[in-house]
Here is the input.
Amino acid sequence: MTHEIHFGRFRLDLARGGLLRDGKLVPLGNRALEILIVLASAKGEIVTKDKLMTQVWPGRVVEENNIQVHVSALRKALGDDNASASCVVTIPGRGYRLVGTPSPAFPDRTAARPPPRPEQRMRYLFEDYTLDTDRRELCRRGVVVRLEPQAFDLLQYLIRNRGRVVSRDDLIASVWAGRIVSDSAMTTRINAARRAIGDTGKAQRLIKTVPRKGIRFVGRVREEEAGRSVVSLRPPASYLALPDKPSIAVLASPT
Here is the structure.
């Protein structure tokens, strides 16, 4: 399903990552587009500069004038000028706001969703790693690997669904509970999951990117129920069956 947000004469296509005005594509840089996504998802509320930095430039130090450059590019793309009301309003000392409450052109994915069934608590073992869904831990050879919660949820979802390609919409619905997420924020979490299991975007040994479709976990995985002791792989010892009735063994005498 295509996910869109409408405001004024504009349509923001989240699946394809594009902005359209009266059905025509509006040229817009990636950063300016991500700023627009964050502003649109706020539904008319003020978005602080700190939040923009966190959402659009996750984990990076960005100067304030860098934000202003991309906001100016966004305003230009929206056709803002002094003669007309600006779509992107600056709130002095606070941040920015997109005028007009954006209306989603798709149903609320959380409202109609049935209550989730309790998931079985599992341990997933692959290579030298163990992912424990009960303890919410990733370990390598018994040592806990640091992994922030969203990256853990993303890795867990990929492993649970390793039999198929997981789309961007799948990740938004499962990891971010249907909230609007910029491409850079999602890429940051994917890279964090890869680093935690010794993988990279270049090697793609365990997490493979399928162009224009999504990503997939391709490693070999063994499953165990969390909380159970590890089952030994050694064959059970064999014992001689005792007879139901008494018996006499006759031994040969030494010669």
The chain is about 25% helix and 20% strand. The first strand starts at residue 4 and ends at 7. The first helix runs from residue 30 to 41.
